[in-house]
Amino acid sequence: MVHIPNADHVRLDRDARALLQVLAICCYYATMPTPFSPLRSAAVGLGALLLILAGPLAAQQRIWEPEVYSTARFDDNRMVAAAGLLVPFAQRSDRLLFADARGHLNEYNAWEGDFGFGYRRLLAEGRTLVGGYGYVDETRSELGNGYQKVMVGLELQGERWSARGHSYFVGDAGSGVLARGLQAPAAAQISERGMDGWDVEWGSRLPIAIKAQELWLYAAYYRFDASGWEAAEGPRVRLDWRVPLDWVAPGARVGFGLQWQQDDLRGGQEFASIRFQLPMNGRMSGMHSAMRVNHWSRSRMAEPPERGMDVVTGVRGPGA
């Protein structure tokens, strides 16, 4: 078994505040008008169930603190900026139940906001980290169409490997509608369709020896399609370099990424990214940082789940 020191200064008032924050976000999503209400209602219901089940875990010990994170992604055509908050609101030394909210925006006024829950647990005497998560997204595309998306994912992680898979379900709010905000005659109007899909990914930690830094290589395959539309299907490769920033704040870290993907719908695409993560409580973060050195799972337990930034869409001109 993995030995984790007890957190002597348990603060139940922090747990109560975290639970209230999550409940407030659930209520916000439950009251927003949407034509995609069944899936949204299911996600909010799941959140409420997790809140009920969180009580026995929340009263134990506090190892991980809420973290803020931000990401900037660049390619030849645009930059996407994202920011999020991960709240670990129920935890023990070998398991964690968390809420996660993120929003992002690009210079073409396309935006996305998502909210979800996740659960991770150490198994096999600390050799394997198992996790699952689900998110509800609100998206506006660059053509001005609105979409609602539900994503569910599963993951397995070891000290030097990881595997994950996702399924994406897109609501029909934007399916086949004419792009809003375009001043053009009917003959030149454009239709857009959101696509359901899936992806699977395998990652391996490369052998480098630079203190606590990590270099990871990932290979993935994805497919997104909709009836009557050309599918987006192909490989994806990404490189991720993770660097601790304990000199900024205990537990802080930065990551640098490169990504390439290829499919018939969008062609070849290359991205570069940078992200920052910063725990919100210095004293507890110091404990977290020490534990992260003692066992490989300490930083990954509260890592925001890997997920895409966009709804995949097909676009057609008149008569297509």
In brief:
The chain contains five helices and 15 strands. The protein is an alpha+beta fold and 320 residues long. The strands form two sheets. It has a twelve-stranded antiparallel β-barrel. A three-stranded antiparallel beta sheet has the order 8-9-15, with no helix packed on it.
Question: What labels describe this entry?
Answer:
single chain, 320 residues, alpha+beta, Porin, twelve-stranded antiparallel β-barrel, disordered N terminus
Description:
By secondary structure, the protein is an alpha+beta fold. It has one domain: Inverse autotransporter, beta-domain (Porin, Beta Barrel), CATH 2.40.160.160. 18% of the residues lie in helices and 47% in strands. The chain has 5 helices and 15 strands. It has a 12-stranded antiparallel barrel. Strand 5 and strand 6 form a beta hairpin. Helix 1 runs antiparallel to helix 2. The longest helix has 20 residues. It is globular. The N terminus is likely disordered.
Largest sheet report? 12 strands, antiparallel, barrel
Alpha plus pi helix count: 5
Task: Report the order of strands and helices.
Answer: HHHEEEEEEEEEEEEEEHHE
| Share of β-strand residues | over 45%
Our Rg estimate from Cα atoms comes to 20 Å
Number of domains: 1
Shape: globular
Q: CATH topology, anyone?
A: Porin
Instruction: Please list the strands of the largest sheet in the order they lie side by side.
Output: 1-2-3-4-5-6-7-10-11-12-13-14
Average of the residue pLDDT scores: 77
Helix content: 10-25%
Show unreliable segments: 2-13, 33-37, 174-187, 284-293
CATH hierarchy class name: Mainly Beta
CATH architecture: Beta Barrel
Find the count of extended strands (DSSP E, 2+ residues): 15
CATH homologous superfamily assignment: Inverse autotransporter, beta-domain
* Cα distance spanning the termini: 60 Å
Structural class: alpha+beta
